[in-house]
Amino acid sequence: MSQGFGIESVDTHQSAPTPKKPTQVADIGCIQHSLVEHFADIEDPRVERTKKHQLTDILVIAILAIIAGAQGWEDIENYGLSKQKWLEEFLALPNGIPSDDTFRRVFEFIDPEALHRGFVRWVETLVTQTGGEIVPMHRNP
Question: What is the pLDDT of residues 42-65, one digit of tens each?
Fold first, then answer.
């Protein structure tokens, strides 16, 4: 008769798993710089007089927020506000965190293919730098 969660038998004579070699963790500063760098060449669709925030800042905050689970423009703004101190370590943020309306307006006009290419290049760089290991997206305070 089976016990537990459908386990018919357990081989207690198996050898212990071989310890995994420690992987060198990519430097968080390199990851941050890489993220900014991969989105720097996306064309800014805004009129010059309306540029209160840098396009790269808007894109990076949105991408990090979505990775962290943001599901709307307000979530993206709230993520930026909650992580502002950390974001200031590698983003310019000359006028603070953009509003939810700013995120929405920018993404309405951004070239989705250019954004996709930048994201794919960034992820490929992460995989190369980390050897496919899990990457922490922020440091705990």
Answer: 999 999 988 999 999 999 999 999
Using CA atoms, how far apart are residues 62 and 105, in angstroms rounded to an integer?
13
H helix runs in 40-111, sequence order: 55-67, 73-82, 84-87, 100-109
Question: Comparing C-alpha atoms, which of 124, 106, 120, 119 is closest to residue 43?
Answer: 106
Alpha-carbon span 104 to 45, nearest angstrom: 13
C-alpha–C-alpha distance, residues 121 and 11, integer Å: 44
In the chain, what are the domain boundaries?
50-130
Q: What is the mean pLDDT of residues 24-50?
A: 79
